[in-house]
Structure to design on (830 residues):
């Protein structure tokens, strides 16, 4: 069924506000197999001797939104942080297997993790703007990564526009970022990330600290961003995954008999519609209909 | 329902007037303890107040411009603390220049870059606290030995005193800087790194600027401690009768604490009064420096 | 007990069995003023025929019906045709008869001959719509009482929201058939993109309610992989 049109929806809570709700792109535009810009091959992530997640084979499709869902403690956030080498900062963290970014192993010997992090950006659970002005928050990334910029003002405007924040802050660019609301701060963090022109944006439960209205705005934004970027999102909210994601990966945790440690494992990965309506694995069905976790 | 009423009322405690004046405490032991605490405060405060009042009364005659403009003399009527004041300023300034960059850099390395699991770094981390507690005279001896080994004969120069004092307050500055760096939230660093900044860029552009208020406060407090030190400088042979203004880091000098020490040792009553006046001056300077530190801390406390 | 407004909208047809003189007193206009049109039939059979022609009427039958046992007549009227019946009382009517008639579904009485006002009152009571209360649905250890909005499982009460209650009732009525996910999606409604997840969440909430009620037992809802869910009470 074709549902590719945009619809206007009036939210009852705020009387005059209209928020555009994009219907998910028609199913037939989503290829059967994702065209992988980011790929995991038999990936295990360890913290010292503890295996946090194991056996991950995933392909993140170009210009798609992929959601990672599953109960707590099954390694979704760990895997996400490995995708842009943020895990390098944790003592004792190591990755086995291969994570390929545009065909190259990003943990290869000659790879510069700084450049990896520029190309694969991250938005965190709690909005974390810098203690600087809005303008300087956005300009920070291009400045530190040595981007050649003709007009920083234009770049800041572009980033804020793409993050659906320009209208709200254009008159107060020099004011502190801390004066913004939670939802605005999170959009600022998204604008900051896209200012360095990444290819992939990783989001670790980006809406869990926000109110429902702000959440809708961010989800809306994700649909827009998908045109230009590839997005991977970790979420605890299955409805959010259903609303937003093209494909979904379901993780679960296996307890080690000896130590009692829980290791995360990928159970199933496929189109979101299929995962929720016709999951191939019993464990997926049990989780989504509340049998466990 | 009546039975329920009586059971409840039986378990309510007997009525107590609201204004019992005991600030919530009822047991006699607790009250005694509160009284003892209050007494300790009174004693401590009382001693301090007595000290200050005594000094002020002793020195009140000598609180004239002469204190600031004249050199020490054999007669108390003509003596002043001018070289001591200038000497203190020179020494403290040199100390600041030596120790603050060094201390901040050391703390930044320990906190942001060093591998925390490495045994050496752990040892350093543990011992910085110990170093801050070492008596100041030991640092004087250390500087003495160091300069002798370098073959410096006349150790009564500003730079030598500053060296000793720098060693003394270096651990304090390191600790203060480290605490200031730790108070910067991890999310700021993560946000910076996630954008593709290097560790160094993150420290230089985010962490350190955010930590500046804490570092400034710690540094000023450390310097105010150094201002009052006499022992290490005496070990280095600080002169007590100086009749010239210090004019460089290699020049001779004296400081306020040393001058006070000198005047107290003289027989004439006038000199004792002078010592008291100079002590008051020293106290005022210390209070001013602490005030500046608190001001900086409060002003920058609210984040942006 | 004063019930009625004295004028009713429209007109209700009352089929009076027996002679007109003995059953009602008053002029037709007066009855019409009270919203009643009286049609008199001499016998029970004739009345039945009239009922067949006009099923939207009320029947007034005196307790001393001659040509048919009154209980049988009332039975036919109530259980087959679902016609409201008023018993007309005369001096000879016994409590026993009246009791029995009530047991068989008569909804009110009026003393004969009935005047317009009193008849109107009785008709009002007779025609008051009464939703038939459904009896509790019981399957194994699970009992769902729709009228009282209560669910009991293994003897313990289960707290449910209206939506989960509806879902459970649907499953109970369908038992032992498996309910497909799509069926639940239609029950749940809403945005089609989210319907699958909302259905899953509804099942999860239902399960959680059972676990809360009886933590040691497995919830009675069983997943049939890739098909749907069914009860296993």
């Amino acid at each position: 069924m074709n549902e590719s049109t945009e619809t206007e929806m009036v939210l009852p809570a705020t009387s005059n506000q209209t928020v555009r709700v994009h219907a998910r792109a028609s199913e037939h535009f989503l290829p059967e197999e994702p065209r992988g810009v980011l790929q995991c091959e038999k990936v295990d992530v360890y913290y010292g001797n503890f295996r946090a997640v194991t056996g991950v084979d995933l392909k993140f499709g170009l210009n798609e939104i992929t959601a990672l869902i599953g109960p707590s403690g099954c390694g979704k956030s760990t895997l996400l942080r490995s995708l842009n080498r943020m895990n390098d900062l944790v003592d004792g963290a190591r990755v086995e297997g291969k994570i390929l970014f545009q065909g190259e192993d990003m943990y290869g010997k000659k790879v510069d993790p700084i450049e990896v992090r520029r190309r694969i950006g991250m938005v965190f659970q709690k909005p974390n703007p810098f203690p600087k002005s809005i303008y300087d928050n956005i300009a920070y990334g291009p400045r530190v990564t040595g981007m050649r910029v003709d007009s920083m003002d234009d770049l800041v405007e572009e980033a804020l526009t793409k993050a659906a924040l320009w209208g709200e802050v254009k008159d107060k660019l020099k004011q502190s970022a801390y004066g913004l609301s939670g939802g605005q701060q999170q959009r600022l963090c998204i604008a900051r990330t896209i200012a360095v022109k990444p290819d992939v944006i990783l989001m670790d439960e980006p809406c869990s600290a926000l109110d429902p209205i702000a959440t809708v705005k961010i989800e809306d934004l994700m649909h827009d961003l998908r045109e230009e970027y590839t997005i991977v999102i970790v979420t605890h909210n299955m409805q959010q995954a259903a609303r937003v994601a093209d494909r979904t990966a379901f993780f679960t945790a296996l307890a080690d008999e000896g130590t009692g440690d829980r290791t995360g494992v990928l159970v199933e990965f496929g189109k979101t519609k299929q995962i929720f309506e016709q999951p191939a694995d019993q464990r997926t069905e049990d989780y989504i209909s509340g049998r466990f976790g | 329902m009546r039975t329920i009423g009586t059971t409840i009322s039986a378990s309510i405690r007997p009525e107590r007037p609201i204004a019992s004046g005991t600030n919530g405490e009822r047991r006699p032991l607790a009250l005694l303890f509160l009284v003892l605490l209050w007494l300790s405060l009174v004693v401590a405060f009382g001693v301090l107040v007595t000290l200050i009042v005594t000094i002020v009364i002793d020195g009140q005659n000598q609180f004239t411009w002469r204190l600031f403009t004249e050199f020490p003399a054999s007669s108390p009527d003509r003596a002043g603390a001018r070289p001591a004041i200038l000497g203190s300023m020179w020494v403290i300034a040199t100390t600041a220049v030596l120790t603050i960059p060094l201390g901040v850099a050391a703390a930044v390395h320990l906190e942001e870059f060093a591998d925390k699991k490495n045994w050496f770094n752990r040892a350093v981390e543990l011992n910085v606290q110990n170093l801050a507690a070492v008596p100041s005279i030991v640092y004087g001896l250390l500087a003495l030995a160091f300069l002798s080994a370098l073959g410096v004969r006349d150790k009564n120069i500003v730079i030598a005193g500053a060296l000793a004092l720098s060693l003394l307050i270096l651990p304090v500055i390191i600790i203060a800087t480290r605490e200031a760096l730790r108070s910067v939230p991890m999310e700021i660093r993560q946000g910076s790194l996630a954008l593709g900044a290097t560790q160094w860029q993150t420290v230089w552009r985010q962490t350190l600027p955010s930590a500046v208020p804490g570092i400034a406060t710690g540094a000023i407090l450390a310097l105010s401690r150094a201002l009052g030190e006499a022992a290490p400088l005496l070990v280095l042979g600080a002169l007590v009768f100086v009749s010239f203004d210090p004019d460089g880091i290699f020049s001779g000098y004296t400081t306020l604490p040393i001058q006070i020490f000198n005047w107290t040792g003289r027989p004439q009553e006038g000199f004792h009064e002078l010592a008291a006046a100079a002590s008051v001056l020293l106290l005022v300077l210390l209070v001013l420096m602490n005030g500046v530190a608190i001001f900086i801390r409060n002003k920058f406390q609210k984040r942006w | 007990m004063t019930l009625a407004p004295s004028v009713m909208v429209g007109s209700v047809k009352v089929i009076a069995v027996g002679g007109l003189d003995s059953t009602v007193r008053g002029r037709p206009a007066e009855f019409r003023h009270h919203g009643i049109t009286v049609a008199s039939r001499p016998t029970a059979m004739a009345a039945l025929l009239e009922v067949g022609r006009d099923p939207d009427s009320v029947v007034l039958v005196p307790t001393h019906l001659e040509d048919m046992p009154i209980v049988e007549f009332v039975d036919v009227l109530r259980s087959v045709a679902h016609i409201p019946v008023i018993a007309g009382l005369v001096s000879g009517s016994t409590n026993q008869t009246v009791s029995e008639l009530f047991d068989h579904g008569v909804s009110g009485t009026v003393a004969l001959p009935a005047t317009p006002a009193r008849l109107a009152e009785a008709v009002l009571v007779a025609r008051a719509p009464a939703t038939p209360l459904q009896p509790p649905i019981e399957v194994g250890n699970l009992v769902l009482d729709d009228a009282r909005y209560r669910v009991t499982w293994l003897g313990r009460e289960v707290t449910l929201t209206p939506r989960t209650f509806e879902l459970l009732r649907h499953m109970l009525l369908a038992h032992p058939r498996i309910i497909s996910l799509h069926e639940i999606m239609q029950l749940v409604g809403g945005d089609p993109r989210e319907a699958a997840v909302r259905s899953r969440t509804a099942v999860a909430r239902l399960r959680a309610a059972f676990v809360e009620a009886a933590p040691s037992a497995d919830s009675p809802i069983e997943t049939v992989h890739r098909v749907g869910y069914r009860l296993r009470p």
In short: The mean pLDDT of chain A is 88. Chain A touches chain C at residues 3, 23-24, 238-239, 241-243, 273, 276-280, 282, 285-286, 288-291 (CB under 8 Å).
